Amino acid sequence: MNALRPLAEVDLGTPVEFVVYDLRVSGNRAFASVQPQRPGGKQIDIQSTPGYVRGEFSTDMMDGTQMQALYVRSGQTWVVMEHAIGATDVWFAGEPFCSSWGAVIAEFCY
Fold first, then answer.
1. Closest Cα to residue 86, out of 60, 57, 62?
2. Rounded distance between C-alpha atoms, residue 20 and residue 1, angstroms
3. Which of 9, 21, 70, 83 has the smallest C-beta neighbourhood within 10 Å, fewest atoms?
4. pTM
């Protein structure tokens, strides 16, 4: 989750910790579905986040702050290749993601 944390904090502010809903690894590919929160389990108020202040978030167009990420292992380090915050659809379904991450998102590849 440390690879995802800086990306989350740019948009959601600091500090961020995650509740992990789903974490899948196959070889050098991984998928994560997480819920960012403030330490101690406090919910993140979207309207007080840097992403909202910059005009990048709209509470009408988001499903909360849940995040999904696709990772690639580079040596001993995991690198986030794609991620989304508050997605209202399954953005990683189909191509171009299935050809690279199909082993960890198989039910979304058709």
1. 62
2. 9
3. 21
4. 0.94
